[in-house]
Amino acid sequence: MPGHPIGAKPHKNRCLRFASSRLLTQWFGLVIFCGLLVGCATQSVPAGSVSPSSIGGHQARFVDVNGARTRYYDVGSGEPILLIHGARPSGTSSANTWVPVLTGLSKRFRVLAPDRLGHGMTENPKGDYSVTAEMEHLYHFIKVMKLEKFHIMGQSTGAYHAARVTLEHPEMVQTLILADSATLSPPIGNVAERRAAIGLGTGAGARSPGATLKDQLRFSLEALSKNREHITEEFLSAAVYMASLPNGKKTDAAMRGDAAKRYEEIIAKGAEEMRGWIKEGRLQTPTLLYWGKNDPSAIPAVGLALFEMISEKNPRARMLIVNNAGHFHYREHPEEFTRNVINFATGW
C-alpha cells in the first residue's frame, strides 16, 4: 500500500433496518433516486468573540497542521470519533454540516470534525487542491490530535477519506461508518446525469438573475434533501461568510476550469484501487453503511452495491437504510442518527 505520514505500515417508524447481503439484494428493484454534496496545542477564538463561521452553539478551534491553519470542532470526551465532511473543495463546504449531531455523539465520544484542506476556513498554503493533498493533511491532523485508536465516519466525498484511512491503517480504526457516497462504490449509472435531472446548478434558485451565493447554496441543499428544516439561515450565512474570506475565494478560484476534472480523476483512480483492496478482503474493520432512501444522487442502489462488495469478505459489515431522508439524513434525523451510530460503534 502507498506510503503516508503516520507510521511504518501501509497506508422504527422510518423503516430503519440492519440488512444482510441476501436481504439487501431484494431491495434493488425498489430503490429510488438519491446525492453528492454537502457534505497538540489548539487555539480557540478569544473568549467573548464568536466567529460567524461557528454555529449551533459550538465554537470551532484552530490548530496548525503541517503549516496549514486548520479549523475544527472538538466536543465531548471518551473514545475519539473523527467526522469527515463531504463536497469537493469549496469555501462553503465545512465541518458545519456535522453540527446537528455533535452534541448527541459527544455523550459517548470525543467528537473531532475538521474542515478538510482548503475547505471552509482550513488553509491550503501549498495550493494543492487534490484528494491526495487532502489525505496527507488528514493524516497530519490525526497525528497532531495524537489519535492512536478512533472511530471514523465520512459522508459523501468524505467517505473516500474515511475508507482510505481505514484500509491503510486498520490497526488504528475501531469502526468505519460510510454515509451516502458515490465516490467509493462500484459505478451505478451516471452521477452527473442524476444531479442534472434534479436541477443541481440549473434550477430556478441557481439561474435566476441576481441569485446570490446563499440562493444557490439553498437550492442545492434543498434538491438533495427530503426534509428541508435543517437548512437554516444560520447554516447558510456561515457558509457564505467562509466563502467570502480570502481562503474561500482562493479555493473557489483554484477549482475553476480543469482543476475540478483533475480532482474527480484522482478520486476515481483512488476509488478503483480501494475497491481492489476490498475485494481482496483487506477491509475487516466493523463497517456500517448508512443511507437515506430518498437521496436523489448517491441513490440507495449505490450503497447496496458497495455493501454487497464489502460484505462478501467482511462478516462485520452492516447497512442501514432510513426512509424519509435524503443525502443529509444525519441532519434531517439527528437524534435517530446519533443513537444508531453509537449503538453500532460500541457494539463490537
Overall form? globular
At the fold tier of CATH, the topology name is Rossmann fold
> How helix-rich are the residues, as a percent range?
25-40%
Give the count of structural domains.
1
Largest sheet: 9 strands, mixed
Instruction: Classify the beta-strand content into a percent band.
Output: 5-15%
The assembly state of the depicted protein chains is: single chain
Number of helices: 13
What's the level 1 CATH class? Alpha Beta
Element string (H = helix, E = strand): HEEEEHEHEHEHHHHHHEHEHH
Tell me the total number of β-strands: 9
Provide mean pLDDT, rounded. 86
The CATH architecture is: 3-Layer(aba) Sandwich
Report strand order across the widest sheet: 1-2-3-5-4-6-7-8-9
CATH homology group: Alpha/Beta hydrolase fold, catalytic domain
Spans of at least 5 consecutive residues whose pLDDT stays below 50 are: 7-49, 201-207
